[in-house]
Design brief:
The complex is a heterodimer of chains A (about 900) and B (about 110). Chain A is an alpha+beta fold. Helix content of chain A is about 55%, strand content about 15%. Chain A starts with a helix and ends with a helix. The chains are: A alpha+beta (about 900), B alpha+beta (about 110).
Chain lengths: ~900, ~110
């Protein structure tokens, strides 16, 4: 018989046991009577020989081995009955716990998906990312992508790894009349097999595909297949146009396939079909991403050792390009950017809320435990051991914890999607965020852990020693002994609430301060969008410039458009065009270079953005490639490059062109890095040069990145359709992508701060509410216990004002200690915030003062209610309570 | 509580298994036989037999059925399971080995005094 059938049939088993024992006794009696004893005498002797029937029964039950379970069931039933009897207590405790566990579970679910889950490739822990490393570093550090020749050498010589290569590309894809700009990658043919990805349809690249001059083939993403072909299975084998060239589609990647850190590219082509000159360039072009998979049995250290050897060999062989250059490998990790910080911050905040919830429930339970002291003492008197009582108390809190935890899990399920949707921008790896058994396990352990946390204090108070005292004394004596523990609860609740409130206050002040910063331009009514030019114009710089000019001209004629310009780094969107500059012809050494954000624009840019011109002039159409090179700098650069001098007429050397360029104007600083990040950006100095003077060799690359910026008289979104029409160009396949207004970009440059503030605000409010409930509950309870004492005081002449003050003082003491401890912790929290959140300043005394005032007011208000009730005690009634 | 017998630890189980091995038998009969066979040497409070019986039953060494006695009453009859028989044999063997060993030691000691 298994233990659960024993458990389920225990009533029947008890009956049988009873019958068995009775049979024994009756047989014995019968036999004794046969031997000549009288019936009463025989009964007595039989019982004597048998032993105490109660104990025997109990021992037989124990022998079943299900005793602990029966006790547990009994305790659980008892706990449920207690909860039903006090629905108010049960509701407060359950809601508190559900909020705490729910919020924590949501955060854990997101952290689990975003940070903890392995990447969606086969044995992802064996995949490494390789990089070039130089023994010098500059503004960008000392880690670089691979040059293609270096990749080939590593691939041929490394034995512990299989290598694959990714080269970023992208361009306009068109099929029939549908054209759009997509991200693409030149890849080595082994990419899909190395990652362990099976194509949805078709075949992967072969080594035959991967050579210059082979028939052009492409693999497209699942979503591109949906968009271009409407999910038609006949897509494989048909041609499409990409970067102005015809490719045959040979395969379709599975839905959701992405390259970690590179997004979800839409098109893949064999890398060796790329005939661009940088494929042979070992020195300058370090633009390839190289991943490797460890061979079975090989270790990371082996791979690193091998790569170092190859690096030394290549450095000797190619001193010009590879001197001081080696190769490193590290495990491929999820690229989640600052989501990591945000998530851990929120998790910390949520844990604090959970902690307050636990303390709250603990104080409620303790209050109840004290009022149940007599019941417990009675149980001890009847023979219950201390262990048994503690177990009963813990069972009760576990029942509470699990019930609250289940509610919390439901809350988490409901709250998960709103949370992910609320995330500023897009949450990295959002597709991995879902409930799974990790989450269930987490919720379960959090609930149980919390139960122990809040159940232990009341449980350990289970009386054993002074049973008779507990039974004899009224409840008054017990109250004093629990007062200290209650004070500890209140103090910690207040302390934790202070931390959360101050954190929210600091974030709020930061957001206010950042929003009021001057972005340096007029952010309203400006639309910026990238444009993918007609690929056939890209081959020839003159044609490319003409295509841009044509687009500008036709946009300018749209009614409602005030000004239009080209720009390569749009304000508020982090660009990556930092270039070194010098103010004399002599090049400084690599590590002493100063950098400037070089922005290529057309003459109307100043009017589009409404950036103030401080000195000199901006560009005109007369600044052409055949005229003198000129630049305009912002005031930050003027300060940095020419402190105390007039910059107009000075010369600046850039790595871009050969000639020095003359400074012709100074404009106001624009926060290119976004409102929050600009102050801390490494390169703030900005320099403008006109697109017309960009050397021809850069025109193609630049044109892939340029945006068109339009100032409108009306809401820019209203002009979107005519704008799209205007840029289509002669062939009709020029498309706008990444369309956004500068206002949107400005808003989203504060999105992390805003998001954190919102959530910290919610958590802080929750903490405030819970702390107030806690203070109210504890004080109401303690005051209630003191009613007889208050009665005596009033009978002896204390006024109601004195009594009010008596109670308030008691609470004020606890609040002040809590605030003191909390403020100390909040200082640490503020330092953490400053380190982790861009734009937070070191100290925000106002946030401290304001939030502490709010908290103290709220807590005093919460204690005022019980205090007032106490002050209105009728001494006669109070004394009669004794 | 007088549940303690003068029996060494674990021997009550062995004795019960041995008695039950002779054929299906109810608790009262086991108690009687235990007393008779041991010539009243083994003094077990009769009640404490039952926890032992139940324990053996739940460990799967004994099985039980409700059957009629000769007098027509219903009683719980215990019988040995295969597992119980194996256990009985193993324990009997080890008990005998132990008894022999102790006997040897005692003989040796007596020999020494002579």
């Amino acid at each position: 018989m298994s233990w659960w059938t024993r458990l389920l049939k225990r009533k029947q088993m008890d009956q049988q046991l009873d019958k068995e024992l009775r049979f024994h006794l009756e047989q014995q009696v019968a036999e004794l009577i046969e031997q000549g004893y009288s019936a009463p005498e025989a009964g007595r002797m039989a019982r004597l020989a048998f032993g105490g029937p109660q104990q025997i029964t109990e021992q037989c039950r124990d022998a079943r081995g299900t005793r602990w379970l029966e006790d547990l069931l009994q305790d659980v039933r008892y706990a449920l009955r207690m909860l039903r009897q006090k629905p108010g207590f049960a509701a407060v405790a359950l809601i508190t716990l559900a909020l705490g566990v729910g919020a924590t579970t949501v955060m854990f679910t997101v952290i689990n998906g975003v940070l903890l889950k392995p990447l969606p490739y086969a044995s992802a822990d064996r995949i490494l990312r390789l990089r070039e490393k130089t023994d010098w570093s500059n503004h960008w550090g000392n880690l670089w992508g691979y040059s293609y020749p270096n990749y080939l050498d590593c691939q041929r010589n490394v034995h512990s790894l299989d290598l694959m290569v990714l080269g970023y590309g992208g361009g306009t894809v068109s099929v029939a009349d549908h054209a759009e700009y997509v991200d693409g990658f030149d890849v080595s043919p082994n990419m899909f097999s190395l990652l362990g990805i099976h194509l949805f349809r078709g075949r992967t690249f072969t080594s035959d595909d991967n050579r210059p001059g082979a028939a052009p083939v492409a693999i497209i993403s699942y979503s591109l297949w949906q968009r271009l072909y409407g999910s038609k299975p006949t897509a494989v084998g048909t041609p499409l146009t990409y970067q102005g060239k015809s490719y045959t589609v040979v395969g379709i990647a599975p839905a959701g396939f992405h390259l970690e850190g590179e997004g979800e590219p839409d098109i893949f082509t064999p890398v060796e079909q790329n005939t661009a000159s940088y494929m042979q360039d070992r020195e300058k072009y370090h633009g390839f991403d190289v991943w490797g998979r460890l061979h079975p049995g090989a270790t990371l250290a082996e791979a690193q050792g091998e790569l170092a050897v190859i690096g030394r060999r290549l450095a000797a062989e190619y001193p010009i390009s590879n001197h001081g250059r080696t190769f490193i490998a590290e495990p491929l990790r999820p690229a989640v950017g600052d989501a990591r910080t945000t998530l851990w911050l929120l998790f910390a905040a949520v844990s604090l809320v959970l902690l307050i919830a636990c303390v709250n429930v603990a104080s409620l339970l303790l209050a109840r435990a004290v009022s149940r002291e007599r019941e417990l003492a009675m149980r001890v008197a009847l023979g219950a051991g201390r262990g048994r009582l503690i177990r009963q108390c813990l069972t009760e809190s576990a029942v509470l914890g699990l019930a609250g935890g289940s509610l919390g899990l439901l809350l988490a399920i409901a709250g998960l999607h709103p949370f992910v949707a609320l995330w500023p921008g897009s949450l990295p790896r959002a597709e991995e965020v879902r409930l799974d058994w990790h989450v269930l396990l987490f919720a379960l352990s959090v609930s149980l852990f919390s139960s122990i946390l809040f159940g232990l204090a009341p449980a350990l108070r289970a009386p054993v020693r002074h049973v008779e005292l507990a039974l004899r004394a009224g409840s008054r004596m017990m109250a004093t002994s629990s007062r200290r523990l209650h004070s500890v609860f209140v103090v910690s609740e207040i302390g934790i609430a202070v931390v959360l409130l101050v954190a929210a206050g600091i974030l709020g002040r930061t957001l206010l301060r950042l929003s009021s910063l001057d972005p340096g331009l007029d952010i309203h009514n400006v639309l910026a969008s990238r444009v993918a030019l007609d690929p056939s114009t890209m081959a020839n710089p003159t044609k490319t410039r003409a295509a841009w000019q044509q687009a500008l001209d036709s946009v300018r004629t749209i009614p409602g458009v005030q000004a239009v310009a080209l720009v390569d780094t749009v304000p508020m969107r982090e660009g990556n065009n930092q270039v070194p500059y010098y103010t004399s012809a002599a090049k400084p050494p690599e590590n002493e270079k100063r950098f400037v954000l070089a922005n290529s624009v057309t003459p109307d840019y100043l009017n589009v953005m409404r950036i103030p011109l401080l000195r000199g002039r901006f560009f005109t159409d007369q600044d052409r490639s055949d005229s003198e090179s000129v630049v305009v700098i912002d005031d930050v650069m003027a300060q940095q490059a020419f402190p105390g001098e007039d910059p107009i007429g000075k010369y600046i050397w850039l790595d871009l062109g050969s000639d020095p360029a003359r400074v012709v104007g100074v404009v106001g600083h624009v926060r290119y890095w976004g409102l929050a990040a600009d102050d801390q950006a490494k390169v703030r100095a900005t320099l403008y040069y006109t697109f017309a003077q960009l050397p021809d060799k850069f025109v193609r690359r630049w044109s892939e990145l340029m945006s068109i910026a339009v100032r409108t008289k009306v809401d820019p979104w209203a002009l979107l359709a005519p704008l799209r029409q205007a840029v289509r160009g002669a062939t009709g396949d020029q498309v706008m992508y990444e369309v956004r207004t500068i206002e949107q970009l400005t808003q989203s440059s504060l999105s992390q701060q805003r998001f954190l503030l919102l959530l910290f605000g919610i958590f802080a409010l929750l903490a405030l509410l819970l702390a107030c409930i806690g203070v109210y509950g504890v004080l109401a309870y303690l005051t209630n216990r003191r009613v007889p004492e208050i009665g005596v005081r009033m009978a002896l002449g204390a006024s109601s004002g004195t009594v009010l003050w008596l109670i308030l003082r008691q609470s004020l003491e606890m609040i002040l200690i809590g605030v003191g401890l909390g403020a100390g912790a909040a200082v640490l929290a503020a330092q953490t915030l400053r380190r982790l959140v861009t734009g937070v300043q070191s100290d925000e005394p106002l946030a401290f003062v304001m939030m502490i005032c709010i908290l103290m007011l709220a807590a005093l208000l919460a204690s005022f209610i019980p205090a007032r009730r106490a002050s209105r005690v009728d001494p006669m009634i109070a004394l009669r309570q004794e | 509580m007088t549940t303690k017998s003068d029996l060494p630890q674990g021997t009550l189980d062995l004795l019960i298994l041995k008695i039950v091995a002779l054929g299906p038998v109810h608790g009262y009969a086991i108690a009687q036989r235990l007393q008779q066979v041991s010539r009243d040497v083994v003094q077990v409070p009769q009640g404490s037999l039952y926890p032992a019986l139940h324990r053996l039953e739940y460990r799967g060494l004994l099985a039980a059925d409700w059957k009629q006695t000769e007098t027509g009453r219903e009683a719980k009859f215990y019988r040995l399971t295969r597992k119980g028989r194996a256990q009985l044999e193993a324990e009997t063997a080890s008990w005998q080995r132990l008894a022999e060993a102790i006997g040897l030691v005692l003989d040796l000691a007596e020999g020494g005094t002579q």
